[in-house]
Amino acid sequence: MKFWPATKLFSLFSNDLAIDLGTANIVIYVRNQGVVLDQPSVVAVKTSTNEVLAAGNKAKKMLGKTPESIVACRPVRDGVIANYELTESMLRYFISEVHNNRKTLVRPRMIIGVPSGITQVERRAVEDSARQAGAREVYTIMEPMAAAIGAGLPVEEPAGNMIVDIGGGTTEVAIISLKDVVFSKSVRVGGDEMDRSIVQYVKRKYNLLIGERTAEDIKIKIGTAVLTDERKREEVKGRDLITGVPKTVILSDSEVFEALAEPISIIIEAVHSALENAPPELSSDLVDRGIMMAGGGSLLKNLDVLISKETGLPVKVAENPLLSVVLGAGKVLDALDFYQEALLK
After folding, report:
1. Could you tell me the CATH superfamily of domain 12-145+325-342?
2. What is the pTM of this model?
3. Per residue in 190-222, pLDDT tens?
4. Which of 39, 81, 143, 163 could covalently link to 113 via disulfide, CB atoms 3.0 to 4.6 Å apart?
């Protein structure tokens, strides 16, 4: 992913911002201008001074490859802030990058998507971090609510809307009616857990150590939630744990399917839990309306097919699943009064 062209961004801070502070990616939406930034949530800092050397794509390329004097890490884990100082530094860095390192005295309002299972302490950390990074006012919205709005679901209607938002660190399942969440389930399993499952599988079966970036590539290329007759294989390079030297193995889609079985079963369980807790009237709406999927994890091949098979409901993937949360938060930002009930109090 890359920065959107920064033309007309003559005064970013004079505009309100919607931010999807995700485990995998940070996406920033500027009011009246749309999405202006989409970068990995990775930051590289000098260990001696905590000075930010790089963030986003530049920092992601450093993961697992830095000397002792530099640390490249993800300051957001499982959808919540794991390192407060680094998150604040990362936010400042991105905001500065987008408007070409120019400073301004105008402080924007910010709306940030947070997991539905977030604690008060974790939520306060997000709000404080945004204020320290330059926000005048900070609003928070549940990620599934933002994703539902961004995916175009009619959340204001007195009818059941179901969203399954699979991000990097969490999967959010929610049933929404009248601009409020009727029931939500948040599990700390997402794309990152799928990658870790592939790492563990390859380690266990082949005594081969691979990185999470390699695992992510495998997941994207041959990962599937349902096996089909079409067979795929992928060459995987890593370090042999017995000899200590580099080694290559050939991994099949059926092996990746086996590796992903556990995280996928947890996601399916969360979907079942939401359906079991839905009021009868809203359940009847879902028979026709079905389930909407969003988030990067929803792009796993045949996951929509599996969820449809397991629930008996029609399942659709949002038109732009990777940007659903930030686009929804942006819509709320454009009409704060209308969406007042959707915000976390």
Report:
1. ATPase, nucleotide binding domain (3.30.420.40)
2. 0.88
3. 999 999 999 999 999 999 999 988 999 999 999
4. 143
